[in-house]
Amino acid sequence: xxxxxxxxxxxxxxxxxxxxxxxxxxxxxxxxxxxxxxxxxxxxxxxxxxxxxxxxxxxxxxxxxxxxxxxxxxxxxxxxxxxxxxxxxxxxxxxxxxxxxxxxxxxxxxxxxxxxxxxxxxxxxxxxxxxxxxxxxxxxxxxxxxxxxxxxx
Length: 153
Known about the structure:
By secondary structure, this protein is an all-alpha fold.
């Protein structure tokens, strides 16, 4: 920036990051709730079916929440890894939402699916790419990828 004034984050990227923060808080809350329920059942001598799988799901949920929180914190710094991390998490959210929708018919899975698609579409769009790649369009051609242009251009 020649003027020394920091560039403002585009509005749709801000909305997408609001969704990222929401997902992080919900993941953290859900993992804590399930962890508390499992601990209570074990403390009262009740059996928890598929305990290993439940613990795995809890830890994945904590890890996803941490990744989303870190992405939200560093999004203003325009690091490219933030966009990639968010896209991976949203891809995971789409898969999990589809599994929930198909296997158990949970209607709230549609909300997770729509939120994931909305966030991913912003991050995959030109505005998201330009924000996280500091104004350079990520798919503009081989010259931007560090390769020499071929004989045709």
